[in-house]
């Protein structure tokens, strides 16, 4: 997939991906999120810091994430976790995106008319 097209598609679903990862993993730090997406997609999707951190900050400002700073190997590392509202919102947004993708697949897999 073309990287610029990939980036545009990714931007629209990034917050849902973050919420879903945190729903699954309880808490993660930024770099860990980027690496998990890369691992899950066998390198097909990469999230840049320039896209990730604004999305994390928006989710935090919306009350969906909470943060905790912990010193690891002498460096401060900020961990993100879902709030109670974040858990509810994660389930809702994942369901919405999944339904959208199912409908999109119906259109993309349209058989030629006879």
Automatic annotation (TrEMBL):
Pfam families: PadR. SUPFAM superfamilies: Winged helix' DNA-binding domain. This is PadR family transcriptional regulator. Residues 18-91 form the Transcription regulator PadR N-terminal domain. The lineage of its organism: Bacteria, Pseudomonadati, Bacteroidota, Cytophagia, Cytophagales. It comes from Spirosoma sordidisoli.
